[in-house]
Write a structure and sequence with these properties.
globular; two-stranded antiparallel sheet; 13 helices; alpha/beta; TIM Barrel
């Protein structure tokens, strides 16, 4: 018996003894990658998530469904079928965790996340789970630090036996009072918490100020930990991608802005991506563009052009990406007709590729 088979049997026994369902056990054990018994090659890990979709507006709403999206098994199937290799699942854990110690995550919510993660893994998709919309942490970081770390302790323990196809992203878009220096401190502690139970899991983390590439230079990461992918979000020009969104004040005035791929338009994106690539080379960290997308109120021709240009620019530089998002306001899929929005799908996954 090899060391790996021996380990798998022990893990399997432990899972059965701790009451893990047969389906969950099968999913974990049949997952595509090696069990987590060594540090993976982080660049290989990044290639696994090279083309992804955000399952947005579902589990990061206060209650799933409140923002119009309830995840379905079929979504995972069609995403895989079209050639994507990963999904990013934004999650509002903070709405399902007790306020005071001992911090506990609602068990039904955990089961729902298990279902989503297992759906992705069983379809052969890698999956990124994060902490999204922890607004209280952004408003009062000091008050919420302990709870934030406790949430990671609970998640980390819960998923410790999952395959290397599950990635942990520490926090979506730190902003407001969670300044760059505080974020560096909290991130460092969160990584230590995660590493206690998940020494070999790939972690994703991004800079302050809404995961802005302009803050990459102030992002601190533990030098010895090579198993970290760095994420940033890209929505430039905002006046085009976010025209008419309810949450960006003044964006009604942006309606009608187009993206035609003029020299100036392309050049400013190229400059941004080159800066990010330079940072990646100097730091030795691979890059994941975990969000980019356009709101439905922009014209479809411009949306498709921008999306295709961004995705290819990322790929040319070896960045993995995840489109924001699957089937809501930025969506690439119509959940009523159960149809892909072809121009956007083709922009993401060119038919010939
Ligand atoms: C961020 C926000 C999300 C928003 C998206 C586009 O991910 O968390 O709510 O829809 O950016 O603005």
């Amino acid at each position: 018996m090899t060391r790996r088979t021996g380990l798998s049997i022990v893990v399997l026994m432990m899972l059965i003894l701790t009451g893990c369902s047969k389906q969950a056990v099968d999913t974990i054990m049949s997952s595509t990658d090696d069990p987590l018994n060594d540090v993976p090659d982080v660049n290989k890990q990044n290639r696994k998530i090279s083309r992804g979709i955000n399952l947005g507006n579902a589990l990061e709403a206060p209650i799933e469904g409140e923002w119009g999206v309830i995840l379905k098994e079929d979504y995972f199937r069609v995403i895989k079928e079209k050639g994507f290799n990963s999904v990013r699942i934004p999650i509002k854990w903070s709405a399902h965790t007790t306020d005071k110690p001992p911090y506990v995550i609602d068990s039904l919510f955990f089961q729902r996340i298990d279902w989503a993660v297992n759906q992705a893994l069983s379809k052969g998709l890698s999956v990124i789970i994060n902490l999204q919309h922890y607004d209280e942490l952004m408003q009062d970081p000091v008050k919420h630090k302990e709870r934030f770390l406790a949430i990671w302790d609970l998640i980390s323990e819960h998923y410790q036996n999952y395959s290397a196809d599950l990635f942990f992203e520490v926090l979506n878009e730190p902003n407001n009072q969670l300044t760059s220096s505080l974020w560096n401190e909290y991130l460092d502690e969160a990584i230590s918490v995660i590493r206690k139970k998940n020494p070999f899991r790939t972690i994703i983390a991004g800079p302050a100020s809404w995961n802005s590439m302009d803050y990459l230079n102030s992002l601190y990461l533990p030098t010895k930990d090579k198993n970290i992918i760095v994420t940033y979000h890209y929505y430039n020009p905002m006046q085009f991608t976010h025209q008419g969104t309810a949450w960006v004040t003044g964006s009604e005035d942006w309606l009608g802005n187009t993206w035609l791929g003029t020299y100036e338009q392309m050049n400013s994106i190229i400059q941004d991506f080159d800066k990010t690539l330079l940072w990646s080379k100097l730091s030795g960290r691979p890059i994941y563009m975990g969000e980019f997308g356009t709101y439905y109120r922009a014209d479809m021709g411009s949306r498709a052009k921008w999306t295709s240009f961004i995705a290819r620019q990322a790929e040319q530089r070896g960045f993995s990406w995840a489109y924001w998002e699957f089937c809501a306001g930025f969506g690439v899929y119509d959940p009523v007709k159960n149809e892909w929005i072809e121009p956007l799908l083709n922009a993401l996954i060119p038919p010939a590729s």
